[in-house]
Amino acid sequence: VQLQASGGGLVQAGESLTLSCVASGNTVNILIMGWYRQTPGKQRELVASIARGGDTNYADSVKGRFTISRDNAKNTVYLQMNSLKPEDTAVYYCHVKSVWTNYWGQGTQVTVSS
């Protein structure tokens, strides 16, 4: 499985941004799609994930501001990020969990200025 993420950028606090990630290759066994983020010196952390059936999971820090969605027909996962804060600044990584293993995208930078 190959993952291609897009949508990062520089925004001001309070603004919105949408990340997209398209999976290609052997996608038939994908179970969960999601987003993680990482800042220098810190561990990568889960932002949000969505199962094939639609069940979602969010980090407490983004609940009520971020929305994850998924188009199974297009093998695409989206992360709508509203009311962005400077502490949301990070490299965001698309993640896919299949039946056998995990896959990671290349990362996209999100920078929120105050």
Report on this structure.
The protein has 114 residues and is mainly beta. Helices cover 0% and strands 58% of the residues. The protein contains no helices and eleven strands. It has strands at residues 2-6, 9-12, 17-24, 30-38, 45-51, 56-58, 66-71, 76-81, 90-98, 102-104, 108-113. The strands form two sheets. Strands 2, 4, 5, 6, 9, 10 and 11 form a seven-stranded mixed beta sheet that branches. It has a four-stranded antiparallel beta sheet with strand order 1-3-8-7, with no helix packed on it. The radius of gyration is 13 Å and the shape is globular.
Computed over alpha carbons, the radius of gyration is 13 Å
The percent range for helix content is under 10%
Return residue spans where pLDDT drops below 50 for at least 5 consecutive residues.
none
Number of strands: 11
* Helical stretch tally: 0
Order of helices and strands: EEEEEEEEEEE
Shape: globular
Integer average pLDDT: 96
> Mind summarizing the main beta sheet?
7 strands, mixed
- Binned strand content: over 45%
Q: What is the terminal separation in angstroms?
A: 37 Å
Counting helices, strands and paired strands, the structural category is mainly beta
Summarize the structure.
It contains no helices and 11 strands.
SSE diagram, text form:
Elements: E1 2-6, E2 9-12, E3 17-24, E4 30-38, E5 45-51, E6 56-58, E7 66-71, E8 76-81, E9 90-98, E10 102-104, E11 108-113
Parallel strand pairs: 2-11
Antiparallel strand pairs: 1-3, 3-8, 4-5, 4-9, 5-6, 7-8, 9-10, 9-11
Note the main attributes of this structure.
globular; 0% helix; four-stranded antiparallel beta sheet; mainly beta; 114 residues; 11 strands; seven-stranded mixed beta sheet
